[in-house]
Amino acid sequence: MISSIAELISDRIGTMPAGERRAAQTLIANYPLTGLKTVAEFSTAAGVSSPTILRFVARLGFQNYPEFQSALQDELAAQLQSPASRTLDPSSTGGAASPMLEATLDNMRETFRHLTDKQLADIAARLAERRGKTFLIGGRFTDPLARYMAAHLAIIQPDVYHLAGQESIWRDRLIDMGKRDVLVIFDIRRYQESLVRFAEKAHQRGVQIILFTDQWLSPIARFARHVIAGRTAVPSAWDSSAALFVVAETLIGAVTRQLEAAGAKRIRDLESLR
Amino acid sequence: MISSIAELISDRIGTMPAGERRAAQTLIANYPLTGLKTVAEFSTAAGVSSPTILRFVARLGFQNYPEFQSALQDELAAQLQSPASRTLDPSSTGGAASPMLEATLDNMRETFRHLTDKQLADIAARLAERRGKTFLIGGRFTDPLARYMAAHLAIIQPDVYHLAGQESIWRDRLIDMGKRDVLVIFDIRRYQESLVRFAEKAHQRGVQIILFTDQWLSPIARFARHVIAGRTAVPSAWDSSAALFVVAETLIGAVTRQLEAAGAKRIRDLESLR
DNA sequence: GGAGCGCTGTATCTTATGTTACGTATTTTG
DNA sequence: CAAAATACGTAACATAAGATACAGCGCTCC
Description:
Two copies of one chain form a homodimer.
Chain A: H1 5-12, H2 18-29, H3 33-36, H4 39-46, H5 50-59, H6 65-81, H7 99-113, H8 117-128, E1 134-138, H9 143-156, E2 160-162, H10 167-173, E3 182-187, H11 193-204, E4 208-214, E5 226-230, H12 242-261, H13 265-268, H14 270-273
Parallel strand pairs in A: 1-2, 1-3, 3-4, 4-5
The first copy, chain A, binds a DNA duplex (30 and 30 nucleotides) through residues 17-20, 38-40, 48-52, 54-55, 64-66.
């Protein structure tokens, strides 16, 4: 049963065209506030035109935009009035422990709250497909995440490549990329120009892009087939990539399970590793 | 100081005429949703006319109605994202969400429960000391964590090196290491022989070792000055490094703060980065 | 009890928002 | 590779929203 608009969206996001999917992702990333703004604001936030927004809400089953906004407001009202379930904290940690830890845990819950099992399953299925090659790359601080994921994926399937080093090096690798291939990109603020350029070129070649970004969405989102928006705010001078890290681990686990279920011969060797 | 519109209202409600007071009460009673609707809806809800609503928001200091609504939305956005009021009701996200996530969150709480603030502060202080060089290295799956930490530390202080590549390469770097230096090692099961050998030799040269490992403790622990034991068990074919990742981020934040407090000139340039 | 002031609502106007139609670009299919 | 179908954006349109002017009413204070 579908009880919230967010669920409704993640349920149908797979059947949406690119533009509407971007609208959906933008809304989910900052749910539900973007939906309470005007069509014009929503459209610029998502980087699409107003009609696309209207088509998006129409596809969700609403007659018009105001009706959609009313639904969001009703939902929000219910949420705000719910028996202030705050302080639910198991207090096993005592709360006071570390503000950094608390913020990180919240980021993870929030990140996964906007991420449905189906989305994860879809992405994992795409990664488990063995049609083409898998490339991974990240930005200044997120490249280690790309490496981490690559280190695992490379064991359970062939043709997994981490793109390292200078921009010129990976730009040349574009030659190897085509429609059947997948590119996993990690990009959080401040978004890197070089990565955006690279993503655009890869997209032009038909490469399917899976983007790990923050809640404000890297500009790469416009080229991406799948977008994972993780929360990054913590009481520190730096942004936190921990939520994205956990999503990555979850995906690694999911891909492994799928390949296992498919009986890939390579997986049996895994046993000897453990 | 007045931080929310609700406070602003209750502050001035005494000076308002009857009609506007009804508007104020209606808004407070269903805060802030009534304020997000149209003027017409607001007015009928309060049982007054539209101009009264507009006079009401004008009295609060807003130039026009949209400006008032934007302020409410900003407030709501902050509220929805702040950890305290997050409703993450156990029914919708709860338990069922992702066993992977739940296990990871547990791991983090457990990891930090066995990690005192003092330990973290001590380690951060050691890393913030600028007496010698800082080297970081990790195992097959944990090396990305070493990279991640190195990427951050290298910005806020000089002489931070990540040891990459073949074993022979970093073995030769031992020549550069001495009593004043720190070596951060990440090593979880299955513990790597090469890392143990390396740690032992570094230890013999007087290098202080900070070890990130799992709860069963890598053999390197016997050489380490500080040991951080993170929980790694998750329902997956792989172990999770997420808890260690969060500890690493916490340390990065702590080191940054300490250097900031010490007024390190290098830190001031950080501003330009953000 | 009467005059002045202030609050409130009705009606009108203006703005900008949501909507629709249509041509172009892109993707999919045979 | 060609043709059809689908998706997207530009621009014009209609509508509903917020803003304003003005008159009526109640209240207070002399």
